[in-house]
Design goal:
By secondary structure, the chain is mainly alpha-helical. The chain has one domain. Helices cover 59% and strands 2% of the residues. The N and C termini lie far apart (79 Å). The mean pLDDT is 90.
């Protein structure tokens, strides 16, 4: 019995060590360096964003421990922080893949879509927790392969159907999605201490209607069991967005210079970098707003809210003539 106990103790120790190793998010990467490497030094408009999308998706699959959201064996089956981080990254990967297919790669509403991007987008939208027949990883790798095909076509004169249009209106469409994502995250993070919020869903339009009646005052509070889930999902989304905005600086350089908007993008990147600071606490704390203990959700919400304000300003600036 003593040796049986030693054996199971050793197994438990190994699982604890693996959970610490696998529970670390990947480091940040240089979007410009990745774009140059993946395009073979032949960078064209769109290379940075496309290469960054590929690199982000590969980091999701190839980080220490691999993709954990669909694992059914210990220790990953008992881990929830990294799977929520993975889902956050996946949300932004899906949004960018959709923007590439429907906005950046099309000149007008009636232009033809690129076949490689048409194949990639639904594959990225496959279930995030399928472990077999087929697995999530296999579908995402197929999506990456299709996106790599589009990246290769961008710099080839023989593929005139593979284009990337760096226009202000295309960028504004993607920023509108980012604005909603960040706004939603900020609300969910702020609800960690409970919020009494005035219902503004129909504000500003006298003729506006909604499906069912709602109270004028809404009380929202995130369950303490879900605090770390929301926190790490937000951390995953902002990790992905940080790299996408670095790529936007490269591909939309002329557009940003014309609008004198480089400083706004720099501010967005700076706020997103703040969301990636080391969490020194062994758990996500939920102290009150001005209480004795920290509230990590409110700190994250502060960075995200400031980034979102800069996104709104950038979108407004791009819409000006």
């Amino acid at each position: 019995m003593k040796w049986v106990g030693v054996f199971f103790g050793f197994i438990l120790l190994v699982m604890i060590i693996l959970s610490f190793i696998w529970g670390r998010a990947p480091s940040q990467f240089d979007a410009r360096g990745v774009a140059a490497a993946r395009s073979g030094g032949n960078m064209v408009t769109g290379s940075a964003i496309t290469a960054t999308l590929i690199e982000t998706a590969e980091n999701l699959l190839d980080k220490p421990g691999g993709y954990l959201s669909n694992d059914i064996a210990p220790p990953s089956v008992f881990m929830d922080d990294i799977p929520n981080w993975e889902f956050g990254v996946l949300v932004q990967v899906r949004d960018m893949a959709d923007a590439l297919r429907n906005d950046f790669s099309r000149s007008r509403s009636q232009s033809l879509e690129n076949e490689a991007l048409r194949d990639a987008m639904p594959l990225f939208n496959y279930h995030n927790d399928s472990w077999i027949f087929p697995s999530s990883e296999s579908q995402y790798r197929k999506a990456i392969a299709s996106t790599e095909k589009y990246l290769a076509q961008l710099s080839e004169q023989s593929h005139q159907d593979a284009q990337f249009y760096a226009r202000a209106d295309n960028l504004r469409d993607w920023l509108a999605r980012v604005e909603k994502r960040l706004g939603g995250l900020s609300q969910r993070l702020g609800a960690s201490v409970g919020q009494v919020r005035t219902n503004t869903d129909l504000a500003g339009d006298n003729a506006a209607e909604q499906s069912t009646q709602a109270s004028n005052v809404i009380i929202t509070k995130t369950s303490w069991l879900e605090l770390d889930d929301v926190f790490f999902e937000a951390r995953g989304q902002t990790w992905a967005l940080l790299h996408f905005f670095e790529a936007v600086q490269i591909d939309f350089q002329s557009v940003l210079e014309k609008k004198n908007a480089q400083a706004l993008v720099e501010q967005i990147i700076r706020e997103l970098e703040g969301t990636q600071h080391m969490v020194w606490s062994p758990m996500i704390l939920n102290g009150s707003g001005f209480g004795l203990f920290a509230n990590h959700s409110l700190v994250m919400a502060s960075y995200i809210s400031r980034a979102n304000a800069a996104v709104i300003d950038l979108r407004d600036l791009l819409g000006q003539g």
